[in-house]
């Protein structure tokens, strides 16, 4: 399965994610959205999350892109594949899923 670079923020300032999770890199604590782009259904990994607004179900990443979280958290194998490839390319050997540490009532 091919992996490609994301469009620029000016071309795609907002991404809606389905079947999303939030992963935290250990030990540095950097967090990323991982999910399925609601338009293309491709797997997606964000740059590091800078601001997360659980009430509005969105976050802003280091790139300045806004990610809108659609529906409850979920899992898709294509998303895990893209995350695994991203980790390999960025030499990330340890991470954990912090999605459930956030208030579940905000995601329903």
In short:
With 108 residues, this protein is mainly beta. The chain contains one helix and seven strands; from the N terminus they run ββββββαβ.
Explain what the structure shows.
This protein is mainly beta and 108 residues long. The chain has one domain. It contains one helix and seven strands. Strands 1, 2, 3, 4, 5, 6 and 7 form a seven-stranded mixed β-sheet that branches. Strand 2 (31-37) and strand 3 form a beta hairpin. The longest helix is centred in the C-terminal third of the chain and has 13 residues, at 77-89. The radius of gyration is 13 Å and the shape is globular. The mean pLDDT is 89.
Please give the radius of gyration in angstroms: 13 Å
Order of helices and strands: EEEEEEHE
Count of DSSP H/I helices: 1
- In this structure, how is the largest beta sheet organized? 7 strands, mixed
Coarse structural class: mainly beta
Poorly predicted regions: none
Q: End-to-end span in angstroms?
A: 32 Å
What is the helix fraction of residues, given as a range?
10-25%
Which term fits the overall shape? globular
**Whole-number average pLDDT?**
89
Number of strands: 7
> How many domain modules?
1
- Proportion of residues in extended strands: 35-45%
């Amino acid at each position: 399965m091919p992996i490609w670079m994301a469009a620029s923020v000016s071309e795609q300032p907002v991404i809606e994610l389905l079947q999303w999770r939030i992963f935290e890199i250990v030990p540095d604590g950097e967090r990323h959205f991982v999910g399925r782009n609601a338009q293309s259904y491709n797997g997606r990994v964000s740059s590091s999350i800078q601001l997360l607004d659980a009430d509005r179900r969105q976050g802003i990443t280091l790139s300045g892109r806004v990610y809108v979280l659609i529906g409850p958290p979920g899992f898709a194998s294509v998303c895990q594949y893209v995350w695994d490839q991203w980790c390999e390319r960025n030499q990330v050997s340890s991470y954990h899923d912090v999605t459930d540490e956030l208030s579940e009532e905000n995601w329903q």
